[in-house]
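Design request, tokens follow.
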């Protein structure tokens, strides 16, 4: 079994994060968690690339559609369609426009529970309802309702892999093997060493 400290996750700072001047603040939050940055670059993705990215998980269309329909119902509103696949078709088109509109920052973070820790720090998909203290909850203001009326994707600053399996599929799409660095951070000792015998002189 691989050591838990080798878990990796993909994070994308979306074009609104870059344009709002939040690159530094967002990186700070992940960095302070204790996770290790092992890959970093700035790119302008094409629409085809974004489609590939989202469709890499064969369940994504269904899950995203169901999540959206449930959110409409919870708010006492009628969803645009009862078919999750149809709902996601519109979302995917809007996402392609949104994410190819300008530079994004792509990163790979590594460490124990990297996927879960990053999702927690990032917050829920819809900024209106994502928790206070999270990136999406603190630093932006969008909602499903307004984005749907305007016919655009929810602008929520970040993409973060949903599961370790999703991360393992997404990372090679964005980074070549040699763009991901293997190195030790001094601070990892206090997170992972079992005996902590290197501190006292
Ligand atoms: P991401 O995958 O970007 O980290 P997520 O996993 O929280 O976000 P998904 O359900 O995978 O959310 O949706 C991907 C992205 O699509 C969201 O981040 C958001 O920008 C957009 N999106 C999702 N659902 C909707 C919706 N109902 N209306 C508008 N945009 C949406
Ligand atoms: Mg997702």
């Amino acid at each position: 079994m691989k050591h838990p400290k080798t878990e990796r996750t993909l994070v994308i700072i979306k074009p609104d994060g870059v344009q709002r001047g939040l690159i530094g603040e967002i990186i700070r939050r992940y960095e302070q968690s204790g996770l290790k940055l092992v890959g970093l670059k700035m790119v302008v993705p094409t629409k085809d690339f974004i489609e590939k990215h989202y469709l890499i998980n064969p369940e994504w269309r269904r899950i995203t559609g169901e999540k959206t329909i449930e959110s409409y119902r919870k708010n006492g509103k009628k969803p645009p369609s009862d078919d999750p696949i149809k709902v996601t078709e519109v979302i995917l088109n809007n996402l392609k426009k949104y994410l190819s509109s300008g530079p994004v920052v792509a990163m790979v973070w590594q460490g124990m529970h990297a996927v879960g820790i990053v999702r927690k720090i990032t917050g829920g998909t819809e900024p209106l309802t994502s928790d206070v203290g999270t990136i999406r909850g603190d630093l932006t203001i969008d909602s499903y309702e307004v984005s749907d009326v305007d016919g655009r994707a929810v602008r929520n600053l970040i993409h973060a892999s949903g599961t370790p399996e999703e991360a393992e599929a997404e990372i090679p799409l964005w980074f070549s093997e040699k763009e991901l660095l293997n190195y030790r951070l001094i601070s990892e000792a206090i997170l992972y060493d079992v005996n902590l015998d290197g501190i006292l002189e």
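Comment from the thread starter after seeing the answer: thanks! The first strand starts at residue 8 and ends at 13.
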